[in-house]
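Q: I'm building a small set of examples for a reading group on sequence design. Run inverse folding on the following structure and report the sequence directly after it, with nothing in between.
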């Protein structure tokens, strides 16, 4: 097992992470530009992974974009900007975010605290605590730590869904050539009522 350096954000840092993700999405969608993190809080200089998730607040709240990585070589501020832009692009969920959608997006950010490579996903996985990434044969898929709790999934269903997202066999997580990584992350998101950011 390998473990990354632990990173923990305060609530204020988490709220700034979500704000930075929204600024990055808006700058990309409205102006085609990459937002610069600017003067960053100390925590944003840590080199760790980050994910950004964009969900529509209309109708059933379908997923509009998600991107990021659990391993980060860049400083956190830049990792958030890059993930936000990728999530808003057509490469994420098939269609690029359009300007009229911006007021109807709920943006969340997952800051990776640490990660470990596991040989026994069922034993090591804790629902609600771990996100999961699966790599096999050049294919890669991942899901947020909060997703199985939101959807009332078992450990097996969670692992199966990650494999499907990676376009692998649903049971690829059980094979020797698949790498299963569990990552712990702090998830911060905008409240649907337009109020402050919440930590999940």
């Amino acid at each position: 097992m390998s473990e990354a350096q632990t990173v923990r954000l305060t609530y204020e840092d988490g709220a700034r992470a979500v704000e930075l993700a929204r600024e990055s999405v808006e700058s990309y969608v409205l102006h085609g530009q990459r937002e610069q993190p600017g003067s960053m809080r100390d925590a944003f200089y840590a080199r760790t992974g980050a994910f950004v998730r964009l969900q529509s607040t209309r109708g059933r709240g379908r997923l509009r974009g998600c991107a990021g990585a659990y391993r980060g070589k860049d400083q956190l501020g830049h990792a958030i900007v890059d993930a936000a832009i990728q999530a808003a692009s057509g490469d994420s969920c098939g269609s690029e975010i359009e300007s009229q959608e911006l007021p109807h997006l709920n943006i969340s950010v997952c800051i990776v605290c640490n990660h470990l490579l596991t040989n026994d996903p069922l034993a090591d996985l804790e629902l609600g605590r771990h996100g999961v990434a699966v790599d096999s044969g050049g294919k890669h898929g991942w899901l947020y730590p909060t997703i199985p709790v939101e959807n009332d999934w078992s450990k097996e269903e969670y692992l199966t869904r990650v494999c499907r997202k990676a376009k692998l066999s649903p049971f690829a997580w059980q094979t020797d050539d698949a790498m299963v990584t569990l990552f712990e992350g702090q998830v911060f998101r905008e409240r649907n009522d337009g109020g402050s950011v919440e930590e999940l």
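The mean pLDDT is 87.
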